[in-house]
Target: Ribosomal RNA small subunit methyltransferase E
Amino acid sequence: MHRFFVNPRQVDEKNKIIEILGDDVKHISKVLRLKEGQEVEICDGKRMEYYVVITKIKKDKIYTSIKEMHLSHREPNIQVILYQGLPKSTKMDLIIQKCTELGIYSIIPIQTDRTVIKIENSKLEKKKIERWQRICYEAAKQSKRGKVPHITEIKEWKEIWEHMEENDLNIIAYENEKSKGLKQLLKEIKKPIKKIGILIGPEGGFTDQEIQEAQNKGIISISLGPRILRTETAGFATVTMLMYALGDLGGY
Model:
């Protein structure tokens, strides 16, 4: 069954009506060619799911009637935030898509010393973020997420520290780390972990100065194994391992 996200303001539970607006109207009527009387899934982005029947299709709006509603159980019990050094080309598209499928909570693109792509034009940045958020939205629909992860504006290296203080645990992937791997770190953790931050560098990784600065901020450097992973692989490889160890990946 096809799934769509709506703003909670579009949900009228009292009268059992949900309105679908925006680009999804064209997608439903012109691309999928769904008709009145057919059923779809709708999520309000806050983990409420609705099974609805299409009752009326208009040019700019689709009306649906709620048949069933329940709380989504597709969101993991941990929040994983990816702080991703901006990669070249369209690698960020892949990172966003796969991390969304795996259950990422949010993604924060960052500029680092070795970031090749420098986005200094605010209009270009806005356009990129809108595109990334759309990729995130489509991936959330496909994987039947209970919410759409948020892609923030691009941050400078020194802007992320205050944000990371809100996490229960922060790690930074470092290819020269020899003393501790992610597997060992997770075994050592005794306190409950609900919010985890992952720092992944761009092509070329982090500089020694950046690693030292991160460690001084209490961020734990970890190895992801004996092989060097590309930036577009390292993020969702780490998310996968965390979701398996602490989340819901692999089943209950």
